[in-house]
Specification:
- The protein is built from six helices and two strands; from the N terminus they run ββαααααα.
- By secondary structure, it is an all-alpha fold.
- It has one domain.
- The chain has a two-stranded antiparallel sheet with strand order 1-2.
- A hairpin with a 2-residue loop joins β1 and β2.
- The N and C termini lie far apart (47 Å).
- Its main location: membrane.
Length: 157
């Protein structure tokens, strides 16, 4: 008689860039917290900018047409870099790119807050888009790899 091979019922340990991640509950909570903070900051930035638009125009003596660049500069950098950023998570490490995205987004936000002329603000918005681009796909990928299959839906919402 042919024997049926035994399938191991042990949970598989997730892989991140070739290294094993300790997917303990504490590690999963930290990963979820980091991704949640990043996504919250990106969304808050998008919503609050529209509310502050008129004040930015008054403070920087910008026309309505010039203010469109403040909003529009963010979108092309985010859209064009998204696919590449998701791919970079594998060779460079998801955690490392998530931290880099948070740092880039935070530094660009600081430059936005302190930007005296409008072109500096527009350039900082492009950099913010780059940081957000690292946060979104890499964060989702990190959560997918840290959480086991039964809990993944709860983590990714």
């Amino acid at each position: 008689m042919d024997q049926v091979p035994q399938v191991s019922q042990e949970p598989q340990t997730p892989q991140v860039s070739g290294t094993v991640v300790a997917a303990s509950p504490a590690a999963r909570r930290w990963a979820l917290s980091a991704v949640a903070v990043g996504v919250f900051c990106v969304q808050l930035d998008s919503f609050s900018l529209n509310l502050a638009r008129s004040r930015i125009g008054r403070d920087l003596y910008a026309t309505e047409d010039a203010l469109e660049w403040v909003i529009s500069a963010y979108l092309p950098s985010t859209g064009t870099l998204m696919l590449g950023a998701g791919r970079l998570g594998h060779p460079f490490g998801r955690r490392r790119l998530l931290v880099a995205g948070l740092v880039l987004f935070g530094a660009a936000s600081l430059v936005c807050a302190l930007a005296p002329p409008l072109p500096v603000l527009v350039g900082a918005r492009v950099a913010q888009g780059g940081g957000a681009t690292l946060l979104m796909p890499v964060g989702l990928s990190l959560l997918t790899n840290v959480y086991p299959s039964p809990l993944r839906g709860r983590a990714t919402g």
